[in-house]
Amino acid sequence: MATAVDRLKRKLSDRLAQVRGDRSQRQFARELGVFQQNVNRYESGTTPHTDFLITLAVKERVSVNWLLLGEGKMKRKR
After folding, report:
1. Of residues 54 and 8, which shows the higher confidence score?
2. What b-and-e string marks burial along 21-58, b requiring 16 or more CB atoms within 10 Å of the CB?
3. Positive or negative torsion for Cα 38, 43, 45, 50
4. 4-69, which class in CATH?
5. Which residues pair with 75 in a beta bridge?
6. CA 7 – CA 76 distance, rounded (Å)
7. Which of 12, 34, 50, 72 has the fewest CB within 10 Å, making it most exposed?
8. Taking 90 as the threshold, does the pLDDT of residue 44 lie above it?
9. Phi/psi at 65 (5° precision)
């Protein structure tokens, strides 16, 4: 039986793909300064490293609360 944490972790990979949008994993990784393999692993369900999440939040102006918990709005205000 999946716990609430397990469900949130599964949805995190969906939200990462949503942030990436139409960009390829390679292009997205290049823009964030990470390896494409990391983006692939994170979208496949591996829990992202904190550094990646912070970089993503800052460069893409994404709310960390939305990214991790699915709460609030996706984009932060400028």
Report:
1. 54
2. eeeebeebbeebebeeebbeebbeeeebeeebbebbbe
3. positive
4. mainly alpha
5. 62
6. 24
7. 50
8. yes
9. -60, -45
